[in-house]
Amino acid sequence: MAARVQPQFEVVVVGAGVSGIGAGCQLRRAGIDDFVILDRRSDFSGTWIANTYPGVALDVPSTSYEFTFAPNSWSRMFATGAEVREYCHRVAREHGLYERSRFGVSVEREVWDDETGCWTLHLDDGSTLTARYVLNATGYFLEPRSNSGIPDIETFTGKVMLSAGWDHDYDYRGKRVAVIGTGASSMQIVPSIVSEVAQLDVYQRTATWCGPKPDFAFGRLGRALLRSRRFHTMAYMANWYLYQAVIVAAEHLPTRVTLAALERFENALRAAYRAYLRIQVKDPHVRAALIPRHGLMANMPTFGRGFLQSFNRDNANLLTTPIERFTERGIRTTDGVNHPYDMIVLATGFTVASEPESFPVGAVSGRDGVDLGEFYRAHGMQAYAGVAIPGLPNRWSIYGPYGWNGVTFVSMSETAGLHVARVLTEARKQGAEVVEVTRAAHDAWHQMMITSPFTRVAQEYVVERQVKGHNVRSYFSNARGEVPIVRPSRGFRNSLWNHSERFDPQQDYTFRALSLPRTNGHGQSPNSISARVAVAD
Description:
The chain is of the alpha/beta class. It contains 15 helices and 22 strands. Helix 1 links the parallel strand 1 (9-14) and strand 2. Helix 1 packs parallel to helix 11 (409-430). It is globular and about 75 Å long. The two termini are 33 Å apart. The relative contact order is 0.15.
């Protein structure tokens, strides 16, 4: 018989960003209070602490970037980073998360002990914590790319500025500045600093769709509407169903019809974008360079205020010649030209949670030798409901493969947190300490994900036609050609996006009390072949 062991915490949540806040709130709403939230940073809000660069703001409407249980009176259509950060802090404070948090802590390794039914978390200072359950809430964007593979960055003697880690003590006014990258961060940084620097060169590898951003401060009527909870619900559902309608259409129309419609839409959009660029950008050579070669949904489309117009200024240049290396004074391009700078901004993106290699081998060790990093490398990205994997008992990821089930990562975090809270509630009801998703439930879910018509359309459109056809990097697919970011829907009434609200934990999980001999929930010994939980191909 296994001995009952009392861990230090019932639940440890790793990460205090939006995902960690959502998980913590759902635990408290379910009456689960014995938990701690760990984060390497100094406060709640995750990416909104890391990203404080000039111009940082939402690129989705503010009303879609909130928890349904915590509506906010936003000041404008696309809230600034500071306002989002304040919202995160308010939600954490009102739900008692500060009293259950530890900051300045990094988790290096998680090890499962099947005899005690506990996880041991090894921290960066050499200490350990034990927990009955672990919720990984480190998000989708994991680490900023420090130099995007460009060599000799250490030789540059000027200021290297990371978009995720802006040094506000450095005065860039009147300086020669380079910005590497044309993604969402760059499109906010460039127009925010271009009028203050002597020279601004933007290095573009891949042109990005940059639509107009209808940003404005809410007036008296807007502020009055935002005080209405019903308005928040209507705005949230409008966003929800708008996105879902696109995915439902892709699932129910014949694949060839959907792909043909996407091609026609893309052609029309490209023509409209060319016309838009003619209005926004004076120089015809710059306009031509700014036209994306990939389709709109091959990568994250962005919305910018002032980015395109920045290139109408005499001190701003768009450079498309590839970078060879960094030099002591600046950047050398492949045409042999040396470009001197005082500051170089790296807006080169992040490593993301859709790549198997983003998960180090040995960082998460589960039951019977199951290692999360090895699992993803061997079998690809998969997880039941985007949160659970067989062989990793008592552990969930708030964002996992095929986990995005709504408009923003806030809605995803809220529903994934609800999933975990429902499982833990059932465990308490049964008096169980060890819970694990069944092999059957996991495999059935993964088959549903990879055989979905939407997934087939996404692979054909994103992977085959865009990533391979145009040689672009996409957040929507990984290096293996998988598209594990967005979950299929299967219709409005029985949408998989609402799965966390409907599923039966008793059907899809096994529950075990440590005081009882270990079985798989059907009276079988775990040593029997039928009771083994094997990793899924």
